[in-house]
Sequence to fold (234 residues):
Amino acid sequence: KGDVSCSMELEKGCNKNGTAEDEFCGKSVVGDCSRDDFHTLAFPSISTSDFQFNHEKASDIITEVVADFLNKVDNVRLILVDLSHKSRILSLVRAKAAKKHIDSNKFLTHVGDITRLHTEGGLHCNVIANAANWRLKPGGGGVNAAIFKAAGEALEIATKQHAETLSPGNSVVIPLPSNSPLHQREGVTHVIHVLGPNMNPQRPNCLNNDYVQGGKVLRDAYTSLFENFASISR
Ligand code: AR6
Fold:
């Protein structure tokens, strides 16, 4: 309790007063998460599950790109989300972000389902990122399947209108129509599909353990994601 890593984690989102609360530390970590002057992006750890990217290396890249971005852009908040309290990527990122002194009001970690951040986590995140596949198709498991399922057909149709494919290291912004359940229930106005590097030999475009190229592609993917998020937030 009270250590540096837990001061970054948003376990349950807002309390009755709209104040975000960290349940580990039992103290507020964010002023007021119901305010609309913060544009908030919630994002999963790209490529570290089905695409099998090394977690140590991914956590270095996440904290590096987050720190660069937050030095340049004001009035935004980033939240890295994963499903389990045992998430290794969340603990690595928390420790590295604390070491780099990244502002814990602007960058947080959260344990929960990215498709239920408002209803279950009490968080208001107007933009969420998806770890997509290159065809931008629903299904396939992981966070991609969860987001397409929660958003319904509206996301599938809107995605097709914006892009047919995505190349590794890139992202595309999809405005989420107001008839999507994810928009209505969770207040999500945009989904940003991101394609990260693939290290899994069972999936297309496997990089065969080439972490020079893989690291570059993952860095490009987060940079593209955050730039796209900033362009919506302006
Ligand atoms: N909420 C929050 N985080 C989640 C959720 C969720 N509902 N579901 C999974 N995660 P992955 P990748 C976390 O495998 O490695 C797909 O099939 C998960 O624990 O979804 O980039 C696509 O179609 C992990 O930390 O994405 C692609 O083909 C993170 O999300 C391929 O997998 C990313 O895990 C992409 O693989």
